[in-house]
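ok so i was messing around last nite and threw this chain in just to see what happens. nothing serious, just curious
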Amino acid sequence: MTVNAKPGILNRIPSHLLVAASAWISRLVTAVVGLFSIRILIQGLGTEQYALYAVLGGLQGWYLLADMGVGTSLQNHISERRAGKQPYEDFIAMAGVIAIFLMLLSILFLFFASPFLAPLILKGFPFLNDAEKARHFFITGVISIATCFGGIAYRIWYAEQKGYLANVVPAVASLISFAAIVFVARSPLEHKLYWSLVAAFGPAGMLPAVAFLLQFTGSLQRSSSVKREILWPLMKRGLKFWLSAIMAAGVLQVDYLVMARFLPANEIVVYNLTSKIFGLIYFIYTALLIAVWPVCAEAVARNDWHVVMGYVKQYIVMGVLLLSGATLLLAFFMPELIHLLAPGKAVMVPVLFIVIMGGYNVIRIWSDTFAMVLQSMSYLRPFVIYIPAQAVITVLLQVSLAPRFGVAGIVYALIASFSLTAAWVLPWCVLRRKRVALSAVE
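result:
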């Protein structure tokens, strides 16, 4: 007689929560390793060189645009195919062809552009000559481009609701990076800033890139051919995400460009350290959003808005409580954290700056939750409409407020730009789409 076993505990837990939990564990490992890495880098490079390191690392967001939205488009196509119980290997194969072409094109462009862009962007760091600036700029860019295309592997895993794999790889990469940073710091190598950049960013780019190549070759074996008719649907949706991402970069990725132009190295270090600490806390929330993205995509495909809005309400409350509590703790314990990260350096983070950073991240939680819902259904028109205005507001305010208020002016500008645009536009659009979808059923 066969006895039906009761489902195990793991089988009763929603897959997106398992993905989020694995992300939190992975991020904890990455964070601990990252904090020790920062300490080693600041001690080995000094404040000025670390500020340059922070600026080059802060430019990575621009390089993540190199895939032209193909990764995000692929994730949604896979989710839709899965919802209809259809195969999707042909989409992965075509995405691989597009990605390899775009990656080579991006690196070629960067090779010729670096001698012109590097001296312009890194003008505030006179301890390097133009040739050295171009070399550091180029190597960081190449690694970041590899990271971008490797990130497609993460998108595939998330769409397959195997996001735990997308969390293991960054944790392993961070451990390899830490070992490489320690090696560079203790070795007699010249040009330690250059090799520190390679050590810090290289593994995070190379490991996912290898994973994506394996996924690509596997999809070629499973699908009969690369179907050209898939090219346009994949690129059409990807271009929408890409345009949205370009405009978002005008909001979120201009901070280091402005700081490199207007602020001293010490304030850049303050911003970098505080952003990394808050980034760790915020990642706990974004990990959950990324994990629930395909769940929302499938729910929207079924027109199950009760599930979608339930997640929205639960996660916003959870995120606000998380950030509020973390901000309060950091207001008391930030001096000890800074002493741990930058011992012996004249780095001080004012309590007011901690509070406004906390407020900014709370606004981001509200906005990004509704943004995830719209992106899960590939509805990007609102982003195209409001983000250009937000980008203009951000740039104008940061350029005008940074010289007056220092590093706090950068965050004041971000708070103002989100409050005037995304914080009310995105919720309105989600509720409007919900009403339209439900009325169509009735």
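not much to say yet. Residues 1-7 have pLDDT under 50 and may be disordered.
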